[in-house]
Amino acid sequence: MAPSNADVKVGENTRMQCAASHDPSLDITFIWSLDGRVIDLHKDSQHYERILNGSSNGELLIKSLQLKHAGRYTCTAQTPIDNVTASAHLVVRGPPGAPGGVRVMNKTDKNVTLQWSRGADNHNPISKYTIQYRDSFSKEVWKNATTSPTDVEGNTEMATVVDLFPWIEYEFRVIATSALGTGEPSSPSPKDKTLEAIPVVAPSDVGGGGGSSRELTITWTPVQPQYYYGPNFGYIVAFKPQDGHEWSKVTVADPQAKRYVHKDPSIPPSTEFQVKVKAFNSKGEGPFSLTAIIYSAQDAPSEAPVSVDGRALSATEAIVWWLPLSQSNIDGYQVKYWRNQEDSEGRAQRVVVPGSENHTRLEGMKPDSHYLIEVRGYNSAGYGPASEHLQIHTKKAPPSRPPRIAGKKLKGRKVNIVWEHVEPLANEAPVDGYKVLCRQQGHSTGTLYTTSKQSIDLLLPTDGNYVVEVRAHTEGGDGAVAQVNITGGSVISAPSLSVLSLLLVALLCLNL
Questions:
Q1: Residues of the chain with pLDDT > 90: what percent?
Q2: Which H or E element spans position 76?
Q3: According to DSSP H, which parts of 193-297 are helical?
Q4: Using CA atoms, how far apart are residues 65 and 70, in angstroms rounded to an integer?
Q5: Domain Fibronectin type-III: where (predicted)?
Q6: pLDDT, mean of residues 222-237
Q7: Which residues contact 504 (CB under 8 A, 6 or more apart)?
Q8: Over residues 155-183, mean pLDDT
Q9: Could you give the CA distance from residue 19 to residue 76 in angstroms, rounded to a whole number?
Q10: Backbone angles phi, psi at 138, to 5 degrees
Q11: What is the dihedral of CA 38, 43, 49, 52, to 10 degrees?
Q12: CA–CA separation, 359 vs 333, rounded Å?
C-alpha cells in the first residue's frame, strides 16, 4: 500500500500509509524520508512515530504538524534481496509568513506611506495586514498604527500611516493575517523622522509672582519633548501691567526652562501683571497659553525690630522677645545668635519665627558663654535690616558628676534614700537642690519630687519594677543621674559575688 497525498493544517496530526507483501522468511525494513532526507524517528520523536501494525506495515504518524513538515514523503520497503519505494505529497496550511522589505516611500509631518513585499501565504489567502510603529518615547513597545484606508486588505502591499507626531523618529513593521491565524511580524523598517511642523501645544500651569524686590517671576510647566515638532524649540514669555496696553515679550531658548525672572528697578512692588507663554521652533510660533494674573515682588522690610530683650534660661537655652514690626508685609522673623569671641557671624545659628509671634526660645547654646543676638523681619522679597545686637551670658553647666547614693532602707511602707552632696567643679553651677524622679521601669515619665535635702522618703509601690533617679538641680540645668531600683516592696541593689555564691549553693541544696 503506497502513501496518499494529504492536505492538513498546522497543529494537526496525519498518517502516511505504507505496506508491502514479502516472503515471511525474510526480514523487512521500512525507511521514511522527506524531500530525500532520511527521517530519524528517534531524534525527532516529538513529531514522528512509527505505527506498529504487523511486520508488513510501515505506517508513519506525523504529530503537531509544522510548516516545515510539508514536502514529498517517500517510503522504502527493503528486504535483504529487494526493495521498493512509493511517495506522496503533504501540504501543510498555516498562518502567513512575515512580509519583507518594509520601507517608507513618502512622508509629511504627520503621515508616512509604507510599502512592503508579501510573504508566503502558506496555502491560505492573506485576508488583511496590520501595521505597527514604535518611537523613542514608547520604550520599545510596538503599537498598532492608524492607517488610511482603515482596513488594509490582504491583496495590497502599500498603506499610509496617519496621526503621527511631527519631527519624531519612527520604525514600522507589518503583520499578515489569514483565516488560519496571524503570522510573524516583518523586520522593522529603517528609522525615519517625520517632517517639522509649527508647535500646537502651549505650556501649562502658567503663574508666578513673588521673588526678590523689583522682580517679576513667571513660571510654567515645560512642554513634553514629543510636542516640540521641530528643532530650535523654546518659549516666548509675554507680560504687561493689568492696566497697560503694550505686551513685553522675551525669548527663552531652553526647551526645559520652567521660569523667567524679569528684573527692572522701575517695577512697583506688589503690582498686578497679566502673563502668558507660548512655544516656538524653527517652523514658527504656537498658540499662547491662557493668561494668568500674578503680582510683582513686594519690597523687603525696611525697618529693624526694636526693644529686643531676653535672658538665659539655662546653660544651653535662652529666650528672646521684641516689639512686632508695624509694616503689613512681614512674613516672619529670623533670629540669629552666635558666641561673641569663639564664633564668627557666618557660623551663627538661626531660628525662624512666624510673623504672628514676637518671641522665641534659643537652644543648643554653649554653657558659660557670651552670645550676640540679632532679629530681622523678612518676606518673599528678602530680609530687612537687623536689630541692634543683644548680649546674653548663658549659665554655667550643671554638675557632670552624679550624686553618690549613701544609703537606702525600708521604713514600714516607705523607702528612705540618702545621697551625698554634689560638689560642682570650678566651671559648673552651684547646686540649688535635687530632683528625684520615680518611674516604672521601661517608662520615661513618672512622679517628680524636688528637695533641698540630701534624702527622701518614697512610698513603696505594691508591685512592679521601678527606677528612682536622683540628680542635682542648678540654674544651668539638671546634672548627671544616679539610679536606685525598687521592686515588689523592696530595694534592689546589685548583689556582691559572695551573696551570689550563697544563692547558688542554696539552690543546689534544694535540688538534692
A1: 65
A2: strand 71-78
A3: none
A4: 8
A5: 98-197, 202-299, 304-397
A6: 97
A7: none
A8: 95
A9: 10
A10: -95, 0
A11: 90
A12: 9
Q: What is the mean pLDDT of residues 30-53?
A: 86
What nine digits make up the cell of 110? 504627520
State the Cα–Cα distance between residues 173 and 218, nearest whole angstrom.
45
CA atoms of 477 and 266, how far apart (whole Å): 55
Mean pLDDT for the stretch of residues 402-417: 89
CA distances, 165 to each of 69, 160, 282, 502 (Å): 45, 14, 16, 91
Output the nine-digit C-alpha cell for 211. 521673588
The C-alpha cell 501649562 sits at 204
Cell numbers that stand for 402 in this block: 552624679
Taking residue 72's Cβ as centre, other Cβ atoms within 10 Å add up to 13
Task: For 363-495, list the strands marked E by DSSP.
Answer: 370-379, 382-383, 390-393, 405-411, 414-419, 433-440, 447-451, 455-459, 465-474, 477-487, 490-492
pTM: 0.61
Confidence of residue 496 (pLDDT cuts 50, 70, 90): very low
Q: Taking 60 as the threshold, does the pLDDT of residue 504 lie above it?
A: no
Q: Do residues 276 and 235 make contact, with C-beta atoms less than 8 angstroms apart?
A: no
What residues are paired with 130 via a beta bridge? 175
Domains and CATH numbers, the chain: 6-93 (2.60.40.10), 100-193 (2.60.40.10), 204-295 (2.60.40.10), 309-393 (2.60.40.10), 405-492 (2.60.40.10)
Per the structure block, which three cell numbers stand in for 455?
A: 534624702
**Is the pLDDT score of 501 beyond 50?**
no
Q: Which of 202, 238, 247, 241 is nearest to 218 (CA)?
A: 238
- With left for phi above 0 and alpha for psi between -120 and 50, is residue 240 left, alpha or beta? beta
